[in-house]
Amino acid sequence: MTADLNPDRRRSEAISSSSSKPDSRSELSVDQNQGPTTVHQRHRETWDGEDQEKPDTEEPGRIRAVPIHQRPDLLVPCADLVNSEWQRSQAARVHSLQKSCSEFPVCLVLLQGERGSERLLGHVRLTRVVSHSSGLFVESVVVSKEERGKGYGRILMEETERYAKRRGFKRLSLTTHDKQHFYAHLGYVLSTPVQSSGAVMALVPMAMLMKISSVPSGEQSCKNKTSAGQLQTQTLTKTPYRDIKGVPIFWMHKDI
């Protein structure tokens, strides 16, 4: 789910309380508790590389992730959900969500219940990773404040993985300021920076991204050297990486 050069590419870090975090690149607003599980018998058909949601009257309590471009009726409610965590004008947020498409970026919404009367539980945005054709970057993840503490954050991440797998992707990358233990519990490991293809960040050279992250260009391990030449290692409690504001940030990924 860090100040970002692109306001649409933020937030991949988990937030378990209802308090907001500064609008930042890749901040995830999810809860960390165990909770309900999804029902995987989905009545769908495949089209253009995506599963198409089909109305059904069975399993009224089932939870599923659906691309927002398949549900334009949810654009405004979803914009309000994301804006509840990171303020923008509703029009600007809707415009950003309307960019979702099967070719990426893709915005997924986590829904529960029958179509037309379902609850909107969460949102996540996926973008391609530059130079890694099998990778996606996870960002703008948020769970409704009213639904936190019920395990929906975990479900949202699991549904995101399933969607990525169905599309043929093999790795998810993200950043977090302080929820690295949550992601480690979900199977994520410490990693090095990657470049997302999302909007403005697609124009940012990798060398600049590495400089922002305080990592020498070409570094392929989770290590960095201080000005005194001492080796720094990224651990679950300490990171040499910094966001554009100079705030410590953890880079992580998961092979799926």
TrEMBL record:
<dbReference type="GO" id="GO:1905502">
    <property type="term" value="F:acetyl-CoA binding"/>
</dbReference>
<feature type="region of interest" description="Disordered">
    <location>
        <begin position="1"/>
        <end position="66"/>
    </location>
</feature>
<dbReference type="GO" id="GO:0008080">
    <property type="term" value="F:N-acetyltransferase activity"/>
</dbReference>
<feature type="domain" description="N-acetyltransferase">
    <location>
        <begin position="61"/>
        <end position="211"/>
    </location>
</feature>
<protein>
    <submittedName>
        <fullName>N-alpha-acetyltransferase 80, NatH catalytic subunit</fullName>
    </submittedName>
</protein>
<dbReference type="GO" id="GO:0005737">
    <property type="term" value="C:cytoplasm"/>
</dbReference>
<feature type="compositionally biased region" description="Polar residues">
    <location>
        <begin position="30"/>
        <end position="39"/>
    </location>
</feature>
<dbReference type="InterPro" id="IPR039840">
    <property type="entry name" value="NAA80"/>
</dbReference>
<dbReference type="Pfam" id="PF00583">
    <property type="entry name" value="Acetyltransf_1"/>
</dbReference>
<feature type="compositionally biased region" description="Basic and acidic residues">
    <location>
        <begin position="44"/>
        <end position="62"/>
    </location>
</feature>
<dbReference type="InterPro" id="IPR000182">
    <property type="entry name" value="GNAT_dom"/>
</dbReference>
<feature type="compositionally biased region" description="Basic and acidic residues">
    <location>
        <begin position="1"/>
        <end position="13"/>
    </location>
</feature>
<dbReference type="InterPro" id="IPR016181">
    <property type="entry name" value="Acyl_CoA_acyltransferase"/>
</dbReference>
